[in-house]
Amino acid sequence: MMNEITFPMVVYSIPSDKFVPATLMAENGSALIASYMEREGIRPLILDYNTPDSLKVIAENGKDAFKQGVADQLVDIYRERGVRIAAAKMFTNGFHDELDIFREVKERLAEKGQHLTIVAHGPHANWYGKGILRDYRDVIDLISVGDGEMSAVPLVKQAYGGGIDPDTIPNLMWLDGDEVRESKMGRRFVDLNELPTPIYREDVYPAIGSKMFLPMLDDSRGCSFGLCTFCAHPVHLGPYRERDPQLGKNMG
Ligand code: B12
Ligand code: SF4
Asked: Which residue, 85, 158, 172, 211, could crosslink 26 as a Cys pair with Cβ 3.0–4.6 Å?
């Protein structure tokens, strides 16, 4: 039954050397997707490791021990709740550590016959998605490109239904043999005026109490200029779209 499904969304962007204080801010995109999940009776669980507690453990025990602790915790949660699909937000910071953790989690679950599908999203997954699919095919199964609003719920429903058919879900990339494929549904862009309120409750987002709580107002996405060669925003965020300023005023 759908209401017994837990959908975990891991947020991990702890850099290998210096710490970036902005990682301590509450995570906007996962809290937004959590809202779509709850509407459908799916239980979202945001596992945000960008916290002061993580830094304490790293300072006291070192990074390897910390990573091992994260992997152990994820294995326990995914086993206990029979998780079949999980999300991994990927920033450039912490990218390789996150891969190490998920590789171990996948392997340990597979040893007990539990297959885990991992969908990567976020800035690093968007920019380097094709390379990630080819180079880390043992870890990452799908990449969510751009807006996740239209793809997250169907992915979870299919994962617990008859199996995932990525061609029926927009904004996805995956590896087919050695070729990177994109969904036949193509790219879709959400209407920002229809965005729900992100969920920052502790039962959904257990680490929220230790985050800097400055919620982001998603007032625009995309870029219609799109000519700056160094910039990936036009590629994955699509054309410039604004949210009705009145909605922002009401939310405030
Ligand atoms: C707002 C913002 C911030 C805020 C974040 C606040 C918050 N509460 O989340 C703050 C100021 C904290 C911040 C900090 C930093 N940021 Co910043 N930030 C942005 C910005 C402008 C918008 C991000 C955003 O909120 N988008 C809207 C939300 C709703 O989208 P989203 O989070 O991407 O979520 C979508 C997907 O992830 C997906 N999704 C989510 N869950 C799931 C689940 C499933 C199953 C699926 C299918 C999809 C899916 O759907 C969501 C909705 O569409 C982006 C640029 C951009 N326009 O993307 C840069 C950007 C993400 N930031 C960047 C950087 C570098 C940083 C910092 C490292 C800066 C610094 N030196 O301190 C820190 C690191 C923060 C961290 N967590 O590690 C880079 C990342 C580069 C990279 N490759 O990693 C970006 C891309 C800007 C840039 N071009 O340089 N940032
Ligand atoms: S830097 Fe990127 S987002 Fe800004 S105008 Fe250039 S292409 Fe658009």
From this structure: 211
Ligand nearest to the CA of 231: 2
Is 90 touching ligand 1 by the criterion CB < 6 Å? no
Pocket test of ligand 1: the residue of 7, 17, 20, 225 to mutate, having most ligand atoms within 8 Å of its CB, is: 20
Buried b (16+ CB within 10 A) or exposed e, 158-197: bbbeeebebeebbbbbbbeeeebebbebeeebbebeebee
Domains and CATH numbers, the chain: 2-217 (3.40.50.280)
Instruction: Tell whether ligand 1 has an atom less than 6 A from the beta carbon of residue 155.
Output: yes
pTM of the predicted protein model:
0.95
Residues 112-140: b if buried by 16+ CB within 10 A, e if exposed:
eeeebbbbbbbbbbbbbbeebbeebeebb
Assigned token pair, 82: 């029979």
| pLDDT digits 0-9 by tens, 110-139 | 999 999 999 999 999 999 999 999 999 999
Ligand 1 atom nearest the C-alpha of 121 is 37
The arithmetic mean of pLDDT across residues 37-61, rounded, is: 96
Residue 81: pLDDT over 60: yes
Mutational pocket test of ligand 1: of 119, 144, 197, the residue with most ligand atoms within 8 Å of the beta carbon = 144
Residue 47, token pair as written in the block:
């596992």
> Looking at ligand 2, which atom is closest to the CA of residue 234?
7
How far, in Å, is the centroid of ligand 2 from the Cα of 229?
9
